[in-house]
Amino acid sequence: MASTVEAPARTAGPAAPAPPPRRTGRRAAALGATALRRSIAVIAFFAVWELAPRAQLVDPVFLPPVSDVLPALWDLARSGQLWSNTEASLVRALAGFGLSIAVAVPLGLLIGWYRPVAELLNPLLELFRNTAAIALLPVFVLVLGIGETSKIAIVLYACTWPILLNTISAVRTVDATLVKSARSLGLPAARIFQKVVLPAAVPSVFTGIRLAGGISVLVMIVAEMVGAKEGLGFLIGSAQQNFAIPDMYAGILTISALGLAFNYLLVLVERRFTRWRTDAH
């Protein structure tokens, strides 16, 4: 009579269930539909850009089709001109933008939190914030010269205001109930500022920083058009003067891509510092 041996029971835990193929497919389709919906306006814009000059709706000499601009962009990238000019512009914009954050955020917190400081500085701030940065560019060039210092300084000046004003507003509009609750718990003013005011103000501060990011690129381009030997503004200006129109549009496309990338990076940083808002929801 044959004996039977029972197989040992398997002790390994259950494997994680794989997502059903149908569910994965629906998610991929939803992501694809979202990407298409968000891209359709951009695709339509480039289609109009391509067709309008070819249909003679606009003069193709002054607005060449996008299919003529892309080869010019490739040639600039291959020759190295695009990278060297982009690097010069980025250094100027980031230097002025970073300095403006270092100056405007602490100053805005100080003005927003301490009323005597606000009463002292508000008249001066109102005078300067209503003076357009571009109008002051000749003054910066005269005082600081035509080198890098004047370009970085004009970017610093232009970027300071949106950050400063949003920071002041953020501190002043913190929910008064939160501040009163913290005071009722016996927290000193410094701890209330650190634990209540500062976290509540961060979203509005980042709104100002994102606004300043776009302004930094715009002002930097204008400054480079006025007086520079390299940079994207110089590239666009020299291409326009030499009637290299596709190169001019290639520079403009590069600036647009640079601005989009800059804004996306700032959005990521904002999400990192305001993660508590997502967690709260």
Describe this structure in words.
The structure is a single chain. With 281 residues, this protein is mostly helical. The chain contains eleven helices and no strands. It starts with 20 loop residues before the first helix and ends with a helix. Mean pLDDT is 83; it is low at 1-9.
Summarize the structure.
The chain is mainly α. Helices cover 79% and strands 0% of the residues.
Q: Which regions contain 5 or more consecutive residues with pLDDT less than 50? A: 1-9
Strand content: under 5%
Main sheet record = none
Give the tally of β-strands: 0
Helix content: over 70%
Mean pLDDT: 83
Report how far apart the termini are. Answer: 69 Å
Structural class, by secondary structure, is: mainly alpha
The helix tally amounts to 11
How would you describe the shape? flat
Radius of gyration: 27 Å
Please write the string of helix (H) and strand (E) elements: HHHHHHHHHHH
Features of the shown structure:
281 residues, mainly alpha, flat
